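Known limitations

Files may contain more than one protein. Parsers should not assume a single record per file. Below, a two-record file is shown to illustrate correct handling: read the sequence, read the token line, then continue until end of file.
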Amino acid sequence: MFPALGVIVLILKTSLIMAYRPVFIYHGILTGADSMNHLVGRIQEMHPDTVVYNFQRFGGWSSLENAWHQVLEAQTNLKVICDLHPEEGINMIGYSQGGLLGRAVLQTYPDHCVKTFISLSSPQAGQFGDDFLHLIFPSLVAKTAYQLFYTYVGQHTSVANYWNDPHHQDLFEEFSIFLPYVNNRILSVNSTQFRDTLVRLDRLVLIGGPDDGVITPWESSHFSFYNQTYAVVPLHESEIYTEDLIGLKTLEESGRLHIIVRENVHHYQWHRKNDVIDSVILPYLD
């Protein structure tokens, strides 16, 4: 009897080890949880029995609410999930705006349980471009959008919170209440925490590509951005990396930063095409 019991215990332990971690998914702007259903289904098809939490809040127009409000509210949801999985932890996928806000959720939650964070085509270094802007504000143009976004009123919207105009960096630092802080470009009482919480990750996966068509520049998905002449400063030459402001350099030097470039993928295909999901997302969900 006892040898048989030992075999059962061994099988249970093995099944726990081989089981996939739960996944928390954070949707993009002007959409909602429904838009991520294909990704949810593909994960569960390829990784059977995976528990997936598809973030239900801030769908549609409410996704334009102030970024800090969304982050702090989403943090309450993540805490509930972490309380359910205190031992094994979870993996997290943030798509588009959800990747930026999801990253900020981790930075404001020192004891988060996230092991792998996947940023799926997200404006991690900010956004600047007409194509994206016209999806939400058809009458605005990138050249003059700062006149609205870099104001007290403008900062009530999420897009304004990460709008990064390379020609008005003084106003960006003066008025933007979100991106300069979560990227530790402006130091605050939370700067050490903002860095330490990311360094706690087992893996940070940054995914983007040149045919995205929405994130502008597309390299923002890898924390690269324009300088004043519209040349993109590579990640490894950027201040956020060289000064290790949020731990990107530390993560890379320890083999925990994964930068993925995938061509021929439009912004709306990252979470809807099986071959893309299978090649750039599933390998990082263990």
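...continuing to the second record:
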Amino acid sequence: MSAFIEETTNRLLPRIVLIACGSFSPPTPMHLRMFEIAKDHFEVNGTHKVVGGIVSPTHDGYGKKGLAAAKHRCAMIKLALQSSSWIRLSDWETQQDGWSRTKSVLQYHQNFMNNYINSPDVTATMSGYDCLPGWLPANLRVRKDPVQLKLLCGADMLESFGVPGLWSDADIEDIVAHHGLVVVTRSGANPEKFIFDSDVLTKYQRNITLVINWVPNDVSSTVIRRLLARGQSVKYLINDMVIEYIRQNGLFQCKTQL
């Protein structure tokens, strides 16, 4: 009976999908661990039901230093996600004519899910597609209530909103007002102060969920690339299959034999 009550309660919770945007060059365990941390937070607090996770790597046109070609980043993400039952890769961003603003990425995925849920004729709604995209979370149509897409990020992305010229105020407002942020931060950080100092973020702070990561992991893509270029081991820092893919394709000036 308790299991039935729990399931019934879960069905009544607002549904959300988490999306992480970035370079993922290469993907690290923390990139994916953030999804699990956020999902646990919502389940423990009983406020929302997380029904899917999406990893959206940026277009090659982003031009960031150390950015591997999109085909390689997508391949590495697929390998890293093989053990996940609910986080999926979306290559939509990489297939566009050029770099897409985060606002546009969120709008595309949100609109696609809305159309999929609300259309009585799936084939008509999906005209132009040979099949449903692989990033689409499973079982979205078992309920007709809306699913909200939220941007999952670390505190560094939140703070990047304050870098002059990096984000437009209109984009920040659209992302926070219409989608919302889930910010995974570390113990001792003070994202509340950053939100307080921003008029836009304060205005929509009800749409910002702060989640403390009590098990910090500082292994970044930058550190992985540096170790690989120096011929040092990255074993146990990233997925073994990703390491092998990097070695086979000679990515990141790899000199290590692992």
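Parsers that stop after the first record will miss the second one. For reference, the second record is described as follows. Strands lie at 15-22, 49-57, 87-89, 147-154, 181-186, 208-213.
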